[in-house]
Amino acid sequence: MMTHYEALAVTPNANYGEIRAKYRAAILALHPDKLDPVLESSSSQQQAGTISSFLRVQEAWKVLRDADSRAAYDTLLLSDDGLETHSSMRRSESACVIGEEVMLEEMEESVGEDEGGGTEKVFEYWYPCRCGEFFAVSETELKEAGLDLGEEHVQRCAIVLPCHSCSLHLRVFFWASIPS
């Protein structure tokens, strides 16, 4: 079975820009309106194959253009009961491609506004992805993962952050307090 990456002729590590460029080129090459004179003179089997390729490219773009649906698709590709594994993708226990591992202290820190509309300031941490976008995590998300900035940190923990442009993930290590 052809993967969405194969349908667009990109690698699983391709960034959004590469996927978009391949999609646009494929749609222009396979669009039925552009091929109308060619399709009229070809057999019905060739017509069905061309339309099938066009629809396969459309479906691949629909999945790979959105970071969340792409991450879910990658997880499905890597699972034992999922689709056939793309030759350049390895099966892994984590079911995601970890591009880098860093300590929380290595991430850039910025101060943002409270999401609830309050006046409280919230720390946000970000780290550049090799595709040019950023991995980001808020203080709130870190607290949900076990980090309490006011307590003694005695247990090493990690959180995995997805890039919102490509399929890479960043593993961020930090020290958390042990729950009583």
UniProtKB/TrEMBL annotation:
* Protein species of origin: Sphagnum troendelagicum
Q: Which residues form the J domain?
A: 3-77
According to the lineage, what is the superkingdom?
Eukaryota
> Mind listing the UniProt keywords for this protein, alphabetically?
Iron, Metal-binding, Nucleus
InterPro entries referenced in this protein's UniProt entry, alphabetically: DnaJ_domain, DPH3/4-like, DPH_MB_dom, DPH_MB_sf, J_dom_sf
Write out the similarity annotation.
Answer: Belongs to the DPH4 family.
| Compartments where found | Cytoplasm; Nucleus
First-listed, main subcellular location of the protein, grouped into a coarse class: cytoplasm
What name does this protein carry? Diphthamide biosynthesis protein 4
Q: Which Gene3D superfamilies match?
A: DnaJ domain, DPH Zinc finger
Q: Enumerate the spans annotated as DPH-type MB domain.
A: 98-175
